[in-house]
Write a structure and sequence with these properties.
The chain is of the alpha/beta class. The chain has two domains: 6-96 and 285-304, Rossmann fold, CATH 3.40.50.720; 100-276, NAD(P)-binding Rossmann-like Domain (Rossmann fold), CATH 3.40.50. It has twelve helices and twelve strands. The radius of gyration is 22 Å and the shape is elongated. The two termini are 28 Å apart. The chain binds nicotinamide-adenine-dinucleotide and (2R)-2,3-dihydroxypropanoic acid. The site of (2R)-2,3-dihydroxypropanoic acid has 6 residues, from loops.
Length: 313
């Protein structure tokens, strides 16, 4: 174990791996590998650079008794039991804001891809059907539609801004209404779904929002409805979503996140009107580099005793 007391858990790209090596982190591929380190080595760990969806609870934290910082690579920290960390004086940091644009861009792109059937249109051209004179069937207009954003946080706000530029009638649900006079607040997810045709989920994951997009919400969205999810798979009742799509009670979906990633329910792949993405909302070179910098900046601040940049507890 390096004497810096830093371990990096997870799969990092080459640039991040080099930068982590430079600050003296010991890299291990998974949480299980970190837990398998000898007790004497785990006892020296002061800071963890974390990049994994594996759950960290109190029992895991107890395996690192000298831990003071858990620096998460990602804005969403639903895999981490923050209350358990706080109870053990472990600070938790994340990587907010630097990824807002990319995630919002992907959400808008997925919606456009679903509505204009761009995946099917691409296949139509490649297969030679267009060249043979077969027209591609007409599809659905996106500009001007009624859209709902479930969770008007940092990313939700960026999505709403982009969709407003598509001349959409923007509605939202958040626990409280915001200073956004041009956009309409609703007092429940179902009321929001009732008012719109397209619903974009941008709320946090975790126990409090589990299945917040319930069967009731999907029914309220209705047979012309399209659901976009870039939040976490846990926020949508996936069984209800699959039933609604298969039964024609929802027009389509565009999903970047799933309940059981990356081994998603095979029923999704059989659905023609569903766009599937491999949880790649923030996955551009630029943004991943910024996330890595922020993760390491928190570790460096912690080791120097400075104020953490993006603390969540
Ligand atoms: N697909 C991707 O690659 C990707 C990338 C980044 C973030 N995300 C997800 O997007 C989420 C949102 O990120 P953000 O930076 O906009 O976060 P944020 O904290 O700024 O916004 C989250 C929204 O959820 C709401 N919220 C928080 N706790 C809630 C609760 N208990 N009940 C109901 N609503 C609650 C907040 O009020 C806010 O509207 C992340 O937590 C993460 O899960 C996904
Ligand atoms: O929360 C995030 O930042 C993304 O989902 C990457 O994990």
């Amino acid at each position: 174990m390096a004497d810096t007391g830093i371990i990096a858990i997870g799969s990092y790209n080459d640039n991040d791996a080099d930068a982590l090596d430079e600050i003296g982190a010991v890299r291990v591929p998974s949480l299980a590998d970190a837990l398998a380190l000898p007790e004497a080595e785990r006892a020296t760990v002061k800071a963890i650079a974390y990049k994994s969806g594996a759950s960290i609870d109190g029992e895991v934290l107890d395996a690192f008794p000298a831990l003071g910082l858990l620096s998460n690579f990602g804005v969403g920290y639903d895999a981490i039991d923050v209350a358990a960390a706080t109870a053990r004086d472990v600070a938790v940091t994340n990587t907010p804001d630097v990824l807002n644009d990319d995630v919002a861009d992907l959400a808008v792109g997925m919606l456009l891809m679903q509505m204009r059937r761009m995946r099917q249109a691409d296949a139509h051209v490649r297969s030679g059907m267009w060249a043979e004179g077969q027209p591609f069937p007409l599809n659905r207009k996106m500009s001007g539609a009624r859209v709902g954003i479930l969770g008007l946080g940092r990313i939700g706000f960026e999505i709403a801004n982009r969709l407003a530029a598509f001349k959409m009638d923007v509605h939202y649900w958040s626990r409280s209404s915001k200073e956004t006079p041009a956009w309409t607040w609703h007092d429940s997810p179902s009321a929001l779904a009732e008012a719109v045709d397209l619903l974009v989920v941008a709320v946090v994951g975790g126990p409090e929002t589990e299945n917040i997009v319930s069967k009731e919400v999907l029914d309220a969205l209705g047979a012309d409805g399209v659901l976009v999810n870039i939040s976490r798979g846990s926020t949508v009742d996936e069984a209800a979503l699959l039933d609604a799509l298969e039964g024609g009670r929802l027009a389509g979906a565009a999903l970047d996140v799933f309940e059981n990633e990356p081994k998603i329910d095979p029923r999704f792949a059989a659905l023609e009107e569903v766009v599937l993405q491999p949880h790649q909302g923030s996955a551009t070179h630029t943004t991943r580099a910024a996330m890595g910098c922020l993760q390491r900046a928190n570790i460096e601040a912690f080791l120097k005793g400075d104020t953490l940049l993006t603390r969540v507890n």
